[in-house]
Amino acid sequence: MAAEAADRRSGIGCARQCHRRGGHACRDRTGRADPSRRWRRNREYQLHDDDRDGRRTGRRSRIGHRPDPAGQPMSNPVYLALDLPQLDAARDLAITVRAHVGGLKLGLEFFCAHGHHGVLDIAHAAKLPIFLDLKLHDIPNTVASAMQAINTLEPAIVTVHASGGRAMMEDAKAAAGEHTRVVAVTMLTSLDERDLKRTGITGSPHDHVLRLAELAQDAGLDGIVCSGQEVGAVHKQWKDCFLVVPGLRPAGASAGDQKRTVTPRSARDAGASVLVIGRPISRAEDPLAAARAIEATL
Ligand code: C5P
Of all protein residues, whose CA lies closest to atom 12 belonging to ligand 1? Predict the structure, then answer.
């Protein structure tokens, strides 16, 4: 009781005044984190939260259009991975294929090179939803602060690593913008069972992905990232999971460094919500023709 009173005085606690100590999100009756009940770890979070959607500050969206509002079906599930070092080349490619993809994925390579400025440049030029694939993985406070630092970019999707743990994922979700889906990377598609064993984890990729998917669901995230080989099983376990699937290769395409690959069509048929495709389009001789050909298979 004394601890709860102290929390109340210091402003620590959840928005619904349940005043529990330490890292937690408000829970529903099953014990799952309920992201609709916004929790703030400290005053700093609360200030950012209030500022998040510009309601108090009157600040307008810098991107200017709100992509892929939660709940609306996506017409084209393909997100093109713009893994290119040059901003001009990335912008040109985005404009070239924009009619044949549903969104753009900007990852570590792009964000480290071009930062916020680069993201806004691409978003304004292509006018497509932006998926910031930052794969955040750190202590909860650091991940939540990083999430708040990208809220002004209004990404449609942001990734964190499920192996960062439940508290980290809960805080990431609590700190994210209202219209941003936070999804957890389970096991990279460039890894197979042997690689997993070398990290000290025994068992199949299938079991590992399902375990981490359950953790992400308990933490109140919107979905997960997994390969097309596990997407059907996750879909059965977590019905409304937002399923992001990379490692996709059209029949006959080179796998490169990807190990758990399937075709875009089979991932779609198994229940994928978003199909992440990079090199099969970006490194194609004719990226526009490649994007069109993939779209035609879906
Ligand atoms: O070129 P490719 O189609 O293999 O690109 C896949 C993209 O998806 C890359 O940007 C990579 O960072 C990302 N990704 C992945 N595997 C995951 C999560 C993201 O390949 N598990």
Answer: 107
